[in-house]
Structure of DUF2238 domain-containing protein:
Amino acid sequence: MIRTYLPAPTGAAETVADALRMLAAIGIVVAGVGWGPAAGFSLAFVTVGMFLPRLLGVRPGFDIAFGIVVLASVWSSVLDIYISTRWWDLPMHFLTNGLCAALVYIGLVRLGLLADAATLLRPMASTAVMTFALGLSLGVLWEIFEWFGHTYIDEEIFVGYVDSIGDLAWGGIGALLAGLSRPLMEGQSATARPRATSSPLG
């Protein structure tokens, strides 16, 4: 059953993407032991999210980029790079929010919750607008999460009006560009990929 939804890698790029997922899984233990349960939970959350590109059957290059960016983002938090290097927050929001918005968009289309832009009159514009909207929504949810963390978990989590607006703006720009680049990201649908006929895992 596992091979039905997560087939074995078929090329070097998919192997690299799977290696990143393995690295993220190892990071759960490293972060948990070295930086505490909260860091371990953050790595666990990211590790689970890194399987979504594979399940959705996006291009391996997008899968690799997503894995690298989210790992860089979460380790930047664990290592307090966002605090020591304030400007690092903006490029991370630009990249992470853009890739996440594109992934969410592709997932919603695959689930039939959004119309495939290819069926619309202006597919590129439609994709860009929807991905931009999803990116802003994800950005708002993240800022709420940061506020919650600052208020109830750790006051060291930096929040502020200027910071939030900057994060939303850069994240929105990243999402817009990701929407315009969708044809470069989306590969064969996971449901259309050939399924393994037999596997020791079922």
Remarks:
- The two ends are 5 Å apart (CA to CA).
- Confidence is low (pLDDT under 50) at residues 189-202.
